């Protein structure tokens, strides 16, 4: 389980990688969450919002690591263009349905997440992705 999960907007991989040790808060627009595995979750969200299979996405290299390794405590990875598009285009009912499905999946795995909190996370992330896309930037995730 991650301690800190911050999704943030950056112009490119190189800029995103610079926050590996310090986190993005001072440098980039960001959202902070915790208590879930974001590398697994972004793949689940992509499956829920854009379709595809979990194993297929993992085998394709999602999420794409930009800096760090899981074993050193810090990692920065990119949100896939496909997930970004799905989040940016999703209407509130789609986000609500995806949040309910995600919460149910987590409950099956013994990791309870409240459906309302799941909806807040997806809605806030969708807004961040929309903002990033309007600026021609990408969304990344820093994990500590």
From TrEMBL:
<protein>
    <recommendedName>
        <fullName>DUF1877 family protein</fullName>
    </recommendedName>
</protein>
């Amino acid at each position: 389980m991650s301690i800190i999960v911050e999704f943030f907007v950056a112009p490119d991989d190189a800029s995103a990688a610079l926050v590996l040790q310090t986190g993005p808060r001072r440098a980039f627009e960001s959202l902070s969450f915790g208590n879930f595995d974001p590398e697994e979750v972004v793949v689940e969200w992509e499956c829920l919002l854009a379709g595809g299979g979990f194993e297929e996405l993992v085998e394709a290299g999602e999420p794409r690591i930009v800096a760090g390794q899981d074993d050193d405590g810090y990692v920065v990875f990119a949100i896939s263009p496909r997930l970004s598009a799905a989040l940016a285009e999703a209407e509130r009912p789609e986000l609500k349905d995806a949040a309910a499905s995600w919460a149910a999946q987590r409950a099956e795995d013994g990791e309870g997440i409240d459906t309302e909190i799941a909806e807040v996370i997806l809605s806030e992330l969708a807004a961040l992705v929309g903002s990033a896309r309007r600026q021609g930037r990408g969304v990344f995730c820093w994990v500590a």
